[in-house]
Amino acid sequence: MTEPRARAARQKGQLNFEKELRGLLYAHGDDFEPLPETVRVLDETVTDFIIETCHVASRHATINGRQKVKLEDFKFVVSKDERMLGRMMELMGMDKALKEMRKAFNTDEGKAGLERGGPAKKRKRARKGGEKGEEGEEGADEDDEGDGMDDLTASHSIAGG
Asked: How many CB atoms lie within 10 A of CB 73?
């Protein structure tokens, strides 16, 4: 990469990755509370790397006649470093696998009572209309809130009346 670009004056004291870098340093054997200078230098280095990588990817997109930066532009930037490219490809594969798994779990199974006029509403309508279970639906006499109040009031009225 070329010489890092100058940071804006308002960002000089700001740390972007302080929490993550502290955890990374501790995981690699540093003290639980690393020196603030160490965290600051690492943060500047990481931030400069990210900014420079984005600028080179943007330049590559512009050369190819595009205004938007695509994933292929970042692949081009890291293509000179085999480890970085391999890790990028691994993460992209994991992302694709996770999207496929989410898609497989994305069913309307748990949303049956949430839409308008679902089974829960029909049970309430059946109660208001007369006796419980009047429409012949299963579970029409169950307590909707699950607090047992229907059972309690029914037993109280029998005992008291």
From this structure: 21
Q: What is the pLDDT of residues 60-97, one digit of tens each?
A: 999 999 999 999 999 999 999 999 999 999 999 999 99
In one letter, which amino acid is 78? V
Name the token pair of 150.
């229907």
Q: Residue 80, SS3?
A: coil
Task: Kindly tell me the sign of the dihedral angle through the C-alpha atoms of 99, 104, 108, 111.
Answer: negative
Length of the chain: 161
Pull the structure tokens for residue 25.
């340093």
Q: What share of the chain is helix, strand, coil (3-state, %, to 5)?
A: 60, 0, 40
* C-alpha–C-alpha distance, residues 39 and 112, integer Å: 50
User: 43 with 16: CB under 8 angstroms?
Assistant: yes
